[in-house]
Amino acid sequence: MKCPFCQHEETQVLDTRVSEEGDSIRRRRRCMHCDKRFTTFERIELAMPVIVKKNGSRTDFDPLKLRASLMLALRKRPVSVEALDEALQRIKDKLLSSGEREVLSGHVGELVMRELKRLDKIAYIRFASVYKSFEDVAEFQNMIEEFSGPPSRRK
């Protein structure tokens, strides 16, 4: 920690206390060079990364927009609100734990698809059909065949 008075890099911690609110740590320090004292505070920084869209523009992460996308895919599907909330939390946790300050929108889309695949296959296909912008029916059919496995012989 640099001294704010002389910019010397060696300081000694004299006292450490948790703030009254419990959301930060207060440290009383002394500069080893100029002997002046000062106080620093440590706080947890939980900032969601900025989303970089396909066109290069940047936008703040919006959990409400993410929820709306998932709810649209899950419309009229037998998935509980609790399961939806857990999926949203897993996506947010993955974005936070990545430590990245910027994330491509495609990466967020992949995380959403992974969660939808886990929750409901129909919702997954709905979302993927829009997200992957299928050009023809064959691409859509290939995705459906992923779930149904190899074609069965009819008797």
Automatic annotation (TrEMBL):
Presence of keyword Acyltransferase: no
What is the official name of this protein in its record?
A: Transcriptional repressor NrdR
Its keywords, alphabetically, are: ATP-binding, DNA-binding, Metal-binding, Nucleotide-binding, Repressor, Transcription, Transcription regulation, Zinc, Zinc-finger
Q: Which residues form a coiled coil?
A: none
- Explain the purpose of this protein: Negatively regulates transcription of bacterial ribonucleotide reductase nrd genes and operons by binding to NrdR-boxes.
Q: Which GO terms describe its biological process?
A: negative regulation of DNA-templated transcription
ZnF unnamed span: 3-34
